Amino acid sequence: MEKINILTSLTAGSGFFLSFLLYNHPLNINKNANRWLSIFIFFLSLSILEISLVYENFNVHFPYYFELIGISRYLVAPLLYISIFCFTSLEQRFNRLHLYSFLPFLIILIFRIPYFLTGKNLEFEPIIEKIVFLILQLLLPIQAILYWTLSFLRLRLHTENIGKVESSTEKINLKWLNYFLLIILLIIVIWFNLIFFDITLLKTYTPLLYLFSIFFVGYFALRQNKVYKYGENEIKKLDEIVTSSNEPNRQKRLSEEQTSVLNNKLIILMETEKFYLENDLNLVKLANKLDTTPNEISFVINELHKQNFNNYVNKFRIIEAKKLLLSDEYLNLNIVGIAYQSGFNSKTTFNTTFKKIAGISPTDFLKLNNQNIK
Q: What highest taxon heads this organism's lineage (predicted)?
């Protein structure tokens, strides 16, 4: 028991320290998102600390403070979703509608005011008391599942959105948050165990999982690059593209003649000038190069080429990579060199994209064409 107490105290302390670091991020990037994540980590750590406080009889000596800590658990799930929302939105700002997420916390806090004032719980009829107890027992698990699901769907939407405006997504796809959600799902399962089943084996490993989750978030959150590197004017231009759920059905902005002219300019830029070789190419840069708007060039790519921006650009990069792989001029390059020469930023992304578009890996492509590469 003492080991569990020490481990949970260490985890909570690490969480509070990480919360401070995220709130005052050394690189000052993704500011709002990191601050909401910081607040989430703070209240998660407070919930973890609750375990150690019971061992120290804190609930006996300071029952009111302990009760407040218990009520604060109803903030954890909404804060997770809000932090993910800020990471994945163009403006990375808090949406006022999210204030409704804190209603359960406020209702329960108001419900417990008589206890803080008199030291006594509200009294109900036996049947009503059972209903109230059941609601309080189920509210936290339901809230956890609801906001976990919303967070998962938000990250899926983010993957679609960055494909609409970015050619290289490996540094901004927030995959680590998807993995963190899997850890959170495991924590939710453990919470269910503590509430309903009390399986000893799961309880034994709970503190280790908490500690791992804190270090996992700390490692990736502090290393996360800025997700959307756009100015205010550019964000306004991209907002309709990102928020549109069905791009081909967006209001037609160009006549057929204008669409054809812009498409011809796009083809020349990509096939002749090889603009796709720009490693940091995005929709805004492409629009500026063609002297048009992101919305218009996005419309042309979606309408005429039936692809999003990311797939459209990477199709040209893979064609270029195939040429390089079979060219005698590049025999001294390895796979990484070919990847960078083709416009990619990493070997992993290159391999994944190559297999997705070509149907085979770069190595298999070489074997198929009887070529050798380092």
A: Bacteria
CB of 326 within 8 A of CB of 373? no
Q: Give the residue from 221, 249, 275 where a domain finishes.
A: 221
Q: What Å distances lie between residue 79 and 2, 17, 27, 99, 119, CA to CA?
A: 31, 18, 22, 10, 30
pLDDT value of position 322: 92
Residues with Cβ within 8 Å of 371's Cβ and at least 6 positions away in sequence, in order, are: 325, 326
Tokens of 49: 């600390």
DSSP 194-235: IIII--HHHHHHHHHHHHHHHHHHHHHHTTPPPS----HHHH
Planar angle of CA 38, 39, 42, nearest 5 degrees: 90
Domain-embedded: residue 111? yes
Residue 122 belongs to a domain: yes
Shared domain for 215 and 87, answered yes or no, is yes
| Alpha carbon distance 285, 65 (integer Å) | 54
CATH for 194: 1.20.1070
b/e for 224-254, b at 16 or more Cβ within 10 A?
A: beebbebeeebbebbeebbebeebeebeeeb
Range of the domain at 128: 2-221
The pTM of the whole model exceeds 0.85: yes
d(CA 190, CA 156): 25
Neighbours of 138 (CB within 10 A): 12
Give the model's pLDDT for residue 250. 52
Name the domain boundary from 193, 221, 249: 221
> What is the C-alpha separation between 198 and 152, in angstroms, rounded?
27
What are φ and ψ of residue 328, in 5° steps? -65, -30
166 backbone dihedrals φ, ψ, rounded to 5°: -125, 145
Domain count, the chain: 2
Confidence (pLDDT) at 252: 66
pLDDT digits (tens, 9 = 90+) for 200-220: 666 677 888 889 999 999 999
pLDDT score for 209: 87
Low-confidence residues in the chain, pLDDT < 70? 1, 194-196, 198-203, 244-252, 329, 370-374
CA–CA gap between residue 91 and residue 141 (Å, rounded): 31
